[in-house]
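$ ./design --mode recover --in tokens.txt
reading tokens...
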């Protein structure tokens, strides 16, 4: 059995231009309208069968149109697929695997099983199953891309935490960058301002840190931050052949996945309000800060880029950036030779990747000494951070406009 792709030429059916795209090898049969008309006149039962088939075809198209509208307008793919299959459940065999698809779509861990069933039914099911499976494939096209991205994230995490103990952290970071470059092939993104990248490494790259969408949460409840990995893998590694060193927060005691991942990458960990609280004297805190400056400065002097967010936490794109902390700028002022500060504004990495375009805008670098003659002047530093945050908000809006333009193209 096949599918009807056009019925123009029958009495009462107007002819309209249309395009039909084959997604796999197939054969198209054309039935001459005069011969079909003669067959219908000779066999009234064939007329009844054809009318029923045309009504069924119209019903399927109406169901598909409704399901596609729900899927694309409201981003409710599971609801749309469930609604489509529910309308046809009385016609489906009770043993049809399609009954399980809406349930399998409910978890990222079983989405792959749903696609396997849909593909199998599209190729080997009965006429109704094939038709429904093909409609599901159309509705879930972007969800499939999103699922492939999620699976790529799982592979990256697994590759990092299971890397051989004797493998140097630098090589593990390279492995991570290659994995994310593969993952971001499933994401629509745009980068602007690459001409502003310094010719040599050993600079400080700052970015506005965005929250993670819950859809990308791994089975161990760990979330790989997309914006920072994008800056590292898709900007720095491609330009300098190295993804740089990141400043990350210390893991909380229960965050085994977080700790296993970042410890293996060899990044610099600092305490934030999202880390476990530590009790320390002002002297101990100063010692810890000095150690951070020494470690980070050593990487910069060795020609390794440093990536950090001055906010110390994450925000939604609409609220980004949050208040800036002075650490990154005091670090830059303490290093000789003084590194450049390279601002990168990012947008939409906090959304589901199947329905958005992510964007990064690289702005002109500057030196702290050019904007803060005395980084120990707290009032001047505070005023500088407030002004920079306002400017950065405009850069984030620029990234959002860039993403919107790319989405509309």
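writing sequence...
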């Amino acid at each position: 059995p096949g599918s009807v792709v056009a019925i123009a030429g029958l009495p009462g059916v107007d002819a309209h231009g249309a395009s039909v795209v084959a997604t796999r090898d197939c054969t198209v049969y054309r039935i001459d309208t005069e011969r079909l008309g003669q067959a219908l006149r000779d066999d009234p039962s064939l007329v009844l069968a054809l009318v029923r088939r045309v009504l069924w075809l119209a019903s399927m198209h109406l169901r598909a149109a409704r399901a596609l509208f729900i899927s694309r307008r409201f981003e409710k793919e599971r609801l749309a697929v469930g609604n489509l299959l529910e309308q046809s459940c009385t016609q489906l065999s009770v043993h049809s695997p399609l009954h399980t698809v809406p349930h399998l779509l409910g978890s990222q861990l079983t989405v792959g099983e749903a696609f396997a069933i849909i593909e199998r039914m599209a190729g080997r099911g009965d006429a109704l199953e094939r038709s429904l499976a093909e409609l599901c494939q159309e509705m879930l096209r972007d969800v499939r891309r999103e699922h492939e991205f999620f699976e790529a994230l799982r592979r990256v995490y697994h590759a990092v935490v299971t890397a051989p103990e004797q493998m140097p952290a630098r090589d593990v970071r390279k492995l991570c960058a290659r994995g994310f470059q593969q993952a971001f092939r499933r994401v629509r993104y745009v980068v602007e301002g690459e001409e502003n990248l310094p010719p040599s490494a050993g600079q400080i790259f700052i970015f506005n840190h965005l929250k993670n969408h819950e859809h990308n949460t791994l089975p161990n409840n760990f979330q790989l931050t997309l914006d920072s990995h994008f800056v590292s893998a898709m900007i720095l590694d491609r330009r300098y052949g190295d993804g740089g060193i990141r400043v990350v927060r210390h893991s909380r005691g229960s965050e085994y996945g977080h700790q296993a991942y970042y410890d293996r990458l060899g990044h610099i960990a600092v305490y934030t309000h999202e880390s476990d609280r530590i009790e320390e004297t002002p002297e101990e805190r100063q010692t810890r800060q000095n150690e951070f400056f020494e470690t980070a400065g050593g990487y910069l002097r060795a020609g390794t880029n440093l990536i950090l967010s001055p906010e110390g936490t994450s925000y939604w794109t609409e609220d980004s950036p949050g208040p800036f902390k002075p650490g990154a700028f005091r670090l830059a002022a303490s290093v000789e030779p003084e590194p450049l500060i390279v601002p990168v504004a990012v947008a939409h990495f906090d959304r589901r990747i199947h329905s958005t375009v992510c964007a990064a805008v690289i702005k002109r670098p500057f030196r702290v000494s050019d904007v803060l003659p005395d980084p120990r002047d707290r009032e001047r530093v505070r005023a500088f951070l407030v002004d920079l945050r306002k400017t950065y908000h405009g850069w984030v809006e620029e990234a959002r406009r860039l993403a919107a333009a790319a989405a509309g193209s």
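exit 0
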